[in-house]
Structure formats: C-alpha cells, structure tokens
Amino acid sequence: MRTFNNISKLQKHLIELKNSDKTIGFVPTMGALHNGHISLIKQSCNENDITICSIFVNPTQFNNIGDLDSYPRTMDADINMLEAADCDIVFTPTIETMYPSNSEKEIIFNFGSLELVMEGKDRPGHFQGVGTIVKKLFDIIKPNNAYFGKKDYQQLLIIKELTKQYRLTPKIIGCEIIRENDGLAMSSRNMRLSNEQRIQAPFIRKTMLWAKENINNYSPSELILEVEKRINSNPEMKIGYFEISEADTLIKCEQWKDNTDYIAFIVVEMGDIRLIDNIELF
Ligand code: AMP
After folding, report:
1. Which of 83, 124, 217, 224 has a Cα-to-Cα distance from 211 of 20 to 30 A?
2. Average pLDDT of the chain to the nearest whole number
3. Could you tell me the sign of the dihedral formed by the alpha carbons of 66, 263, 144, 185, in that order?
4. Hey, where are the domains in the chain?
C-alpha cells in the first residue's frame, strides 16, 4: 500500500494509473476505522482496479469544537487495517494541505431542503463542510466510483446532489450499514462509550426494529412519540430526534402512503456521544 500526504505526488501517481486504464474507487473517511469502513474498502476493491482511502478529520464539518477535539484518532491501527484489506493507496493530508491559507473563497452550496432537516438542522454548517471537503477530494482524485455508507443516509443524498450539481466524475455508491453482533451500528464514536453505555447502546437498534414491526399499529406521529418515550426511558439515553421521511427526498411522513419508501432516522445522545442510525420501514 502506498501512503501520500502530498497532493501533487498523489496526482502524479494517479495519472500513471489512469494512463494504464486502471479504474479508481475512492472511500473518504475520518479514520478511527472499523469494519463498517472496511466493508466500503472491500466493495471498492471488488469493483475497481485501484482503491484509495482518505483519512482526514475535516474541521469544517464540526459545528462543535469539543466534538472535533474528542474525535478519535488512531492512524497506526487504521493503516494496518487498510493494509490487511488490500487497499492500494491511503491519502492522509494535513489541515494546511486541504485548507491552505491563500486558498480562494469556499463555495456556498445549495442543497435545498435536503440540508434543512435532521443533521442539517441540528448541526448548522455540517453539510457545507462535508460538501467542501468531498468536492476538494473528488477534484484531486477524480475517481470513477466513490463509496459512502447508508449509516449517514442524509450525507449520501447530499453527496449525490453535489455530484449532480457540479457534474463531478464519480458514480456514487451507497453501501449497507455494518453492525456489531448485538445490532449496534458500527461507528468511530462507539469506542468512546463507557462500559455501561456500551451495554445499553443496542437498545437503539431494538427500538428501531420495534418501530418497523409496529408501523401498522400507529400513525407516524404516534410512532414517533412512542419511540421518543422508549428511548428517553433508558437512563443512559436522551433522544436527539426520531423522524420518518421519504427515502428519496427526506420529506417528512405525515400519513402513511402506499408505494412510498420510508426510512426512520434516529439520533440518540449517550452522555456527550451522539449516535446515529436508520432503518428502512418497508
Ligand atoms: P466517517 O469516517 O465516519 O466519516 O465514515 C466514512 C464512511 O464510512 C462514510 O461514508 C460512512 O457512512 C461510512 N460508515 C461509517 N460507519 C459505517 C457502518 N457502520 N456501516 C457502513 N458504512 C459506514
């Protein structure tokens, strides 16, 4: 595996690969890698000649400085995991590399209503930061395919929109959520959970499965209230949001409609750790 932290050296290497007609798959990450990330790497390896992973904790997508400071950083272990997964290239730029002080003004993106709900509403500026870094990385790497987890489903839709609006090169591929055996969605943030929080955390998935089983027994607003009540009854948890939305547009579901794909989205706060998950309802 080759490691680069310099844009021009990486691009020189990529040009050689592209000149020999190699297809490039790209997996952007913020590191602290787990098997969820590795599933994206493996899918990319299966579908492309060359797989490149970036590791960069992007400051512009954090609206909370405490969250940025406490974000786990495990670079040596990450490199070992990528090596074991047969990743070909890892790109580990510094903040100065991605945000040089003399760089032109950042673009203000218009993601429309996709940005006004859930993560966009709760974390002002978050998707502007995500759009900024992903566009920069796509412009540098120009991959054929780029892989994103459905765990961050709203982010996946935002990236598809970004790619369409700016006619960026890659095809965007959404990948299934990878879970621990007890159902907890894998997340870099899980390693910050206390023992007791970790024992309780699978209750999030259990509650989501309960919601899916009970869509015929409740209206959407009743189901939301019931899920909020159940989560808040766990002493380790506080509900951030539970929302039911149309899968393509994230328009809130007021009443169940036939022939519509709905996804339920949840954020649960466990102490200062924010856990996110979702489930397809039909
Ligand atoms: P992050 O490092 O958290 O920015 O995540 C990098 C990529 O990995 C994003 O596309 C995430 O959606 C994806 N990802 C994170 N956790 C999981 C998971 N448990 N299953 C599938 N994909 C994931």
Report:
1. 124
2. 97
3. positive
4. 2-175, 188-280
Q: pTM for this one?
A: 0.97
- Best CATH choice for the domain 188-280 from the list 3.90.1150.10, 3.40.190.10, 3.30.1300.10, 3.30.70.970: 3.30.1300.10
Of all atoms in ligand 1, which is nearest to the CA of residue 148? 10
d(CA 70, CA 64): 10
Per-residue pLDDT at 101 exceeds 90: no
Known catalytic residues?
Answer: 37
Which atom of ligand 1 is the closest one to the Cα of 32?
Answer: 2
Per-residue pLDDT, 103: 76
38-55 pLDDT, tens digit per residue, is 999 999 999 999 999 999
The residue nearest atom 10 of ligand 1, judged by CA position, is 148
- 23 alpha carbon – ligand 1 mean position (Å): 22
Q: Best mutation site among 40, 181, 192 for ligand 1, i.e. most ligand atoms within 8 A of its Cβ?
A: 40
The alpha carbon of 108 and the centre of ligand 1 are apart by a number of angstroms equal to 24
List C-alpha distances in Å: 100 to 9, 95, 174.
17, 8, 31
CATH tag for 2-175 (out of 3.40.50.620, 3.60.15.10, 3.40.50.300, 2.60.120.430): 3.40.50.620
